[in-house]
């Protein structure tokens, strides 16, 4: 237990002292501020972009759901990649021969060292996203009108689980590659390709990417992708623990 708590404490200090946690808050908060404003002024923006005699674009007035939808679309792009990078860099000690040898020769079960760090990253990312979501909801009420609490809860739960799943995938890739840059690149490409699963009819009802299009849906409507996200996250964590304990020491520079 002391090892788990120590590992969690080390990761907490890494996030705070390196500025990663402040960066997460800033990035998600920016989208929380810009999403409702973008929805409010979208008709004017489109009108200015197509202000010619040959082309005319008409946009309907924004509704409250648009503010949350635009926030989520933006936050789950750059914010998602940043969240995955945070999870991957929590294991960058394994990419350095010295620290890798130090930890691996002192811990019998490596998961007791790595999983607490991943859990702290989950908490930090979910907290940052939640703050931004509440900020977006508040501005949406001010600019666009009242919004249902159920919608905020559904979007929050769905997006939080998707973030956890994406970070777990990045965590597994880092364990397999033990190369920080390679893991970030591979995870980024995978996050860009993953939405294609929704285009396959057989997989669409269970595809976790469905969670990114939750406005207007209830939790019961997205139960299948929620379960998929939980299952993928658990599988990644357990697989990473199994692989990490069977890897040999790296002595290459």
UniProtKB/TrEMBL annotation:
It comes from the Bacteria. Keywords: Membrane, Plasmid, Transmembrane, Transmembrane helix. The chain crosses the membrane at residues 20-42, 74-93, 114-144, 150-174, 181-202, 222-244. This is ABC transporter.
């Amino acid at each position: 237990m002391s090892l788990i708590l120590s590992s969690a404490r080390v990761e907490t200090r890494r996030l705070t002292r390196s500025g990663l946690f402040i960066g997460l808050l800033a990035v998600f908060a920016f989208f929380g501020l810009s999403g409702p404003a973008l929805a409010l002024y979208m008709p004017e923006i489109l009108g200015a972009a197509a202000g010619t005699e040959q082309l005319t674009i008409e946009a309907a007035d924004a509704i409250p759901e648009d503010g949350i939808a635009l926030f989520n679309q933006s936050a789950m792009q750059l914010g998602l990649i940043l969240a995955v990078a945070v999870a991957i860099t929590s294991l960058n000690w394994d990419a350095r021969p010295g620290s890798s040898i130090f930890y691996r020769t002192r811990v019998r079960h490596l998961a007791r060292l790595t999983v607490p760090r991943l859990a702290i990253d989950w908490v930090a990312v979910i907290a940052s996203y939640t703050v931004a979501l509440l900020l977006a909801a508040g501005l949406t009420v001010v600019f666009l009108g009242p919004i249902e609490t159920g919608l905020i809860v559904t979007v929050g739960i769905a997006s939080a689980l998707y973030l956890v799943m994406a970070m777990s995938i990045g965590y597994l890739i880092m364990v397999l590659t033990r190369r920080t840059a390679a893991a970030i690149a591979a995870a980024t490409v995978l996050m860009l390709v993953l939405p294609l699963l929704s285009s396959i009819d057989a997989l669409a009802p269970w595809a976790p990417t469905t969670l990114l299009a939750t406005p207007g849906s209830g939790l019961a409507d997205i139960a299948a992708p929620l379960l998929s996200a939980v299952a993928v996250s658990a599988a990644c964590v357990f697989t990473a623990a199994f692989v990490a304990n069977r890897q040999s020491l790296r002595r290459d520079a």
